[in-house]
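Sample entry (73 residues):
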Amino acid sequence: MPNTTVEPAAPTALDGQPAAPSEPPASVPPPPPQAPPEPRGCLYALSQPPLMLFLSVIAVLLAVTGAYDLFVL
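Predicted structure, serialized as tokens:
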């Protein structure tokens, strides 16, 4: 398949010569250095909402069955 993209033409002056840039490109300062990310441990995993919801459901089931064993049986 042939390449059908068209590249834009370079700007030219009225006499057909390439146009000179009006001012030099502004220098962009480099971004500030970023600190490396801190390692994440077990407490980070416990802060995730789906995990905490799952663990709370398991804890409630264990508490209900424990109370049933203690007070009903």
